[in-house]
């Protein structure tokens, strides 16, 4: 039996004008991103403060983890397309993620600095930590590329609702990221690291349960394209079991690699060099003039994305350590701490969200549209109130302030969703290369507020957190300019027979940007013995120099892309 790539959704299977499966995917991805970003907001601080890693070692591990977590979806996507199908791949990824996040909750003994200056760490706890990272990396590899593929299959070809459906789906990503910081990072830094990591794990459990429960709303679109391939026996075992065993083997390999960050960084450099060599050969040997020019324009845009995310990923590296060491934390100091609640309200609202969504979908199934709408309205209002409470009335931490990125995406997305069509109707919509240039320049400008904040701390006093708010706002404006380019450029400009390889190249460029971001972050590394006060003069100078360099990289590359824009448009041969 072969499952069709797309099929119409029965009328009774719709909810608020979209297939009910969209909402299953929305909540699955929301919880997956909640667990992912909740852990990521804590990772560097946990390494520096609990296991007493040096800044350099912390950045190296952060870069290796980020590089692998964005590279693995290339493999997970291929295995799902050819063999597993999306449902089995998502469930496998979800189980690995649950195990990984819950493993992160095991802290062991805190590292101590001995009298001779050496650091004594809990070796067993570190092995559990590295294994947990490996499980998360492999889990993301199987889940992330396939849940979005399912969304696309819920709509028939040329369905006008597809774009708005993906907009709703991506809103789930940002809602998950927003509340991840406010819950996981706050719990981890306030009550203990294990509570933050544990909350991330429980969130992934909720997402996995939601996905398994909601299978009936996916109408078979997530099933394997050719189940007989999975049942086929190879060396005495079915191919399906070989894939599962291979994933466990992959965890074991990544477990070792992540402890030797230089191997990951070196592999990323080699892969980049190999891809470049293949690309040059393919252009010369396999492309005609038009294909060659379109492929060149595509690779230049992929390089632009790499540069952008090298800047952007400072938010989980140098921006977090800068905030922790040199900025005030509370957005509204006179109101912070007013609440008598010792836990974020969003913790309870998000905990109730799967129940409310299930009630809404079942009410819709039975024709009770009023109850269904009521559940959704209650959920939206509750999350809004909880967000206000947790941002304004609850003390913030360096990790919890990473919510600002997702917050501004949620705020800006509707504005830019209106802006681009409005400009298009007037013939003013910038081309893809021009949007790339604008996004890079704006991303570079996002570092200006932090440069000013670093200068303000030279006198020994912490700078205002509002410099960070402004930096996040400007950075997300840059991302809004860059986001329309993304994967659409790959499908439009790539030679058809290598579109899969170029898609992999796009994701590997994102992975490579994580490695580069970590190496740049190390320029602001500080040697801080346990309990020692921060030397504001040294810290101010180091962070200021890093932020200035990032600013010039963003602005300089943006100006270069502006200059290249007419040539790139010509090479695109009519592709918009």
In short:
This protein has 576 residues and is mostly helical.
Describe, in plain words, how this protein is organized in 3D:
With 576 residues, the chain is mainly α. Helix content is 73%, strand content 2%. The protein has 20 helices and six strands. It has helices at 20-49, 55-84, 86-104, 123-153, 162-190, 193-213, 227-231, 239-257, 261-286, 289-312, 318-326, 345-365, 369-393, 403-425, 432-445, 447-456, 466-482, 486-493, 499-521, 536-572, and strands at 14-15, 18-19, 112-113, 119-120, 233-234, 237-238. A two-stranded antiparallel ribbon has the order 1-2. Strands 3-4 form a two-stranded antiparallel sheet. A two-stranded antiparallel ribbon has the order 5-6. Helix 1 (20-49) runs parallel beside helix 5 (162-190) and helix 16 (447-456) packs antiparallel against helix 17.
Output the number of helix runs: 20
- Mean pLDDT over the full residue set: 88
Helix content: over 70%
- Indicate the structural class: mainly alpha
Query: How many runs of DSSP E, i.e. beta strands?
Result: 6
């Amino acid at each position: 039996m072969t499952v069709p790539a797309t099929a119409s959704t029965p009328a009774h299977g719709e909810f608020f004008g979209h297939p009910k499966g969209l909402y299953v995917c929305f909540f699955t991805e929301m919880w997956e991103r909640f667990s992912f970003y909740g852990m990521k907001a804590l990772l560097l601080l946990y390494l520096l403060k609990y296991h007493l890693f040096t800044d350099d070692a912390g950045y190296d591990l952060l870069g290796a983890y980020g590089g692998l977590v964005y590279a693995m979806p290339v493999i997970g996507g291929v295995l799902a397309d050819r063999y597993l199908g999306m449902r089995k791949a998502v469930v496998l990824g979800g189980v690995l993620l649950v195990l990984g996040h819950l493993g992160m909750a095991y802290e062991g003994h805190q590292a101590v600095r001995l009298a001779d200056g050496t650091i004594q760490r809990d070796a067993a706890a570190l092995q559990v930590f590295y294994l947990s990272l490996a499980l998360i990396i492999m889990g993301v590899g199987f889940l992330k590329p396939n849940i979005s593929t399912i969304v696309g299959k819920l709509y028939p070809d040329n369905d006008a609702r597809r774009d708005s459906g993906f907009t709703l789906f991506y809103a789930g990503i940002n809602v998950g990221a927003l509340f991840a910081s406010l819950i996981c990072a706050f719990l981890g830094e306030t009550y203990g690291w294990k509570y933050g990591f544990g909350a991330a794990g429980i969130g992934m459990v909720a997402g996995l349960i939601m996905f398994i429960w909601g299978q009936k709303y996916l109408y078979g679109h997530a099933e394997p394209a050719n189940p007989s391939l999975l049942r086929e026996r190879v060396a005495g075992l079915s191919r399906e079991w070989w894939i599962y065993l291979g994933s466990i083997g992959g965890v074991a390999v990544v477990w070792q690699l992540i402890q030797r960050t230089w191997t990951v960084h070196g592999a990323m450099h080699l892969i980049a060099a190999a891809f470049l060599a293949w690309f040059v050969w393919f252009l010369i040997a396999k492309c005609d003039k038009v294909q060659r020019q379109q492929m060149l324009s595509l690779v230049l845009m992929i390089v632009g994305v790499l540069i952008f995310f090298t800047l952007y990923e400072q938010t989980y590296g140098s921006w977090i350590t800068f905030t922790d060491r040199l900025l005030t934390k509370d957005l509204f100091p006179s109101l912070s701490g007013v609440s008598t609640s010792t836990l974020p309200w969003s913790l309870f609202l998000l905990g109730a969200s799967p129940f409310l969504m299930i009630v809404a979908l079942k009410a819709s199934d039975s024709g009770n549209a009023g109850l269904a709408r009521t559940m959704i309205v209650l959920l939206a209002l509750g999350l809004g109130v909880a967000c206000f409470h947790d941002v304004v009335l609850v003390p913030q931490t360096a990790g919890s302030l990473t919510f600002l990125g997702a917050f501004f995406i949620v705020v800006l997305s509707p504005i830019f969703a209106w802006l681009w069509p409005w400009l298009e109707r007037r013939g003013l919509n910038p081309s893809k290369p021009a949007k790339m240039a604008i996004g890079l320049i704006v991303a570079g400008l996002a570092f200006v507020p932090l440069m000013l904040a670093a200068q303000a701390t030279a006198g020994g006093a912490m700078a205002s957190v509002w410099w960070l708010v402004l930096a996040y706002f400007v950075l997300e404006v840059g991302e809004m300019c860059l986001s329309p380019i993304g994967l659409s450029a790959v499908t439009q400009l790539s030679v058809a027979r290598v579109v899969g390889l170029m898609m992999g190249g796009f994701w590997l460029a994102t992975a490579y940007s994580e490695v580069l971001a970590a190496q740049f972050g190390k320029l602001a590394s500080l040697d801080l013995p346990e309990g020692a006060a921060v030397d504001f003069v040294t810290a101010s100078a180091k962070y200021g120099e890093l932020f200035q360099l990032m600013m010039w990289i963003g602005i300089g590359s943006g100006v270069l892309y502006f200059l290249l824009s007419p040539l790139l448009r010509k090479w695109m041969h009519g592709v918009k």
